[in-house]
Amino acid sequence: MSPAVTRYGHTPLEGLPERVTICEVGPRDGLQNESAVLPVQVKAEFIARLADAGHTVIETTSFVHPKWVPQLADAEELLAAITPRPGVRYQALVPNERGLDRALDLRVRDIAVFGSATETFAQRNLNRTVASSLEMFAPVVARAREAGIAVRGYLSMCFGDPWEGEVPVAQVVHVAVRMMALGCTELSLGDTIGVATPGRVVALLDALADAGIGTGRIAVHFHDTYGQALANTLAALRRGVTTVDASAGGLGGCPYARSATGNLATEDLLWQLEGLGIATGVDLAAMVETSLWMARQLGRPSPSRTVTALAGGGSRDGN
Amino acid sequence: MSPAVTRYGHTPLEGLPERVTICEVGPRDGLQNESAVLPVQVKAEFIARLADAGHTVIETTSFVHPKWVPQLADAEELLAAITPRPGVRYQALVPNERGLDRALDLRVRDIAVFGSATETFAQRNLNRTVASSLEMFAPVVARAREAGIAVRGYLSMCFGDPWEGEVPVAQVVHVAVRMMALGCTELSLGDTIGVATPGRVVALLDALADAGIGTGRIAVHFHDTYGQALANTLAALRRGVTTVDASAGGLGGCPYARSATGNLATEDLLWQLEGLGIATGVDLAAMVETSLWMARQLGRPSPSRTVTALAGGGSRDGN
Q1: Separation of alpha carbons B129 and B65, rounded Å
Q2: Which of A226, A271, A275 sits opposite B305 (nearest CB)?
């Protein structure tokens, strides 16, 4: 427990879970969207620091072709450089069967596939229709599940799309149901451009529950582009969600969607959860140190407000 | 209504008010804490733009001695330069009877007094004890009320204090009750250093209600130092609060408390409220334009995430 938050106490709020699992997406979703390309040793140290801080789910890298994501071209070397900790799940993004083969060769036990709720983003990000992307995922998910591997399904643009505007709830549910029917074990709802507000979050969760996808299989993935990520998180937790994606220090965004900067920073999320007395197992002080270290590697300050505030020392040392 | 938000629709959430009044604190609380000192004509134009955008409560300036707040030394000239609009309340901060005399001379109809929930901050900010500051306010509030003037009571450090750590709820209630007993017509609960989380907000509101201060007389004043302001706002609205303080473009902070940067930006608040279908009467697009204009006057970008996102044009023009 961080000294910072302890000084300001914990006050629970009715209707919230006692424990939340953070899916730390910094090494993949974060670094993929930074312009700097880091050495593999730095990435391996980053992942080790995240595990040291208490993370139990870490998205490590991607098997997307290096032509598309040069930042993660070292997936094989990186996974070989990680010393797995007991109790920690190291996820890797897998776009297709070729990616799955590479992941299986490296004994990856947790993969993720990446879908879109809108046709425009599917075209721009995956270069195919939504239906065609689901066809591409089908054998990936089936083979992974046969091998006993957990499969997270990312679903992008669940709230708004920069080209299509508001994305109807029914359209999101339609794609979500198909992804789960393929065999995904978890669905991460992405607000890729950060436009969601809490009512829309709850409406989508309710519609997914009606369609048979309960909050036990759902994660939320909010971006802080408009500053809404933590209010949306609060609304999702009240509705029963217990897995929240966040990126150390607020690393990354989405290069294919304008204004899509601003993954929710893990530290800002931790400040909220610790203040509410919700356990995560992740140490805030260790995360702040890690994100300050990563900011030095990238040569730019962390966009996380909590990292910035605590780096100043104002609230931690009592002066 | 902004084209930006309309494109992403409105989805209400149960238990929230239909309408919220924003108290726009940019010209006083915001500019007081900027290092630049702006010409009086710029401030007058700022206030006119805020009224044009639809604000009905605008905190304009302060009658604190210019020695302490040189940024607002032009209070008399500024108030003379404002052409009041019907239906708009122009508040001014008044620290003592001398300040009240100046305000009355200028026909100010809305004043605010400024208290502290902690002894350390009272000493540092007001140079006196909490009890002595209340004695100083007593004749100010009494004379103002006799003159038919509304008196907002600001209460700082309602959640945490950088020197004292967590501030007990009972201590905040103790000071709050005394401020209301003096005759304040509204109480603005300040999270001066931005450390609050939603459970603590609700606990304080409940304790104040038990002490006879209902949400109808309460405003919330959150800082975004740790990124918590909008989640706290959501929790407060659910508990019945309908007045929220915010600062155009996120101007200002508090120079006497370390790490106290980050007034909640009016635009970030508007993005949330519009997305929830909560009426404010304030136009988001006009606010973004005003805050971009003010950023040019100050020679630095706005810290508001919504201003930054919409200035890029990504979500507004659909590209």
Answers
A1: 19
A2: A226
Closest Cα in chain A to B276: A199
- For residue B72, the 8-state DSSP code is G
In B222-255, which positions are buried (b, 16+ CB within 10 angstroms) versus exposed (e)? bbbbbbbbbbbbbbbbbbebbbbbbbbbbbbbbb
Per-residue pLDDT at B256:
46
Give the DSSP H/E element, type plus range, for residue B102.
helix B97-105
Residues of B in contact with A197 (CB under 8 A): 11, 271-272, 274-276
Task: Write out the two tokens for B6.
Answer: 């309309």
Q: What is the mean pLDDT of each run of 10 residues along chain B (319 residues)?
A: 70 97 97 91 98 98 91 95 97 96 96 97 94 97 98 98 96 98 98 96 98 98 95 98 97 53 91 98 98 93 88 46
User: Tokens 């209902």 label which residue?
Assistant: B214
One-character DSSP codes across B148-196: T-EEEEEEE-SSEETTTEEPPHHHHHHHHHHHHHHT-SEEEEEETTS--
- DSSP codes joined into one string, B11-54: ---TT--SB-EEEE-IIIIIHHTSSS---HHHHHHHHHHHHHTT
Q: What angle do CA B169, A7, B122 make, to 5 degrees?
A: 55
Q: What are the structure tokens assigned to A84, written together?
A: 């797995």
Question: Could you give the CA distance from residue A144 to residue B286 in angstroms, rounded to a whole number?
Answer: 51
Both tokens of residue B183? 């005759």
Three-state SS for A71-128 is HHCCHHHHHHHCCCCCCCEEEEECCCHHHHHHHHHCCCCEEEEEEECCHHHHHHHHCC
| Pairwise CB contact (< 8 Å): B226 & A259 | no
Our answer to whether residue A254 is catalytic in this structure is: yes
- Residue B249 touches chain A, beta carbons under 8 Å: no
User: A204: helix, coil or strand?
Assistant: helix
Structure tokens, A261: 């900067």
> Where does chain A have alpha helices with state H?
3-8, 31-32, 40-52, 75-81, 97-105, 119-121, 130-146, 169-182, 198-210, 229-238, 266-275, 284-298, 305-312
Q: CA B46 to CA B74: how far, in whole Å?
A: 14
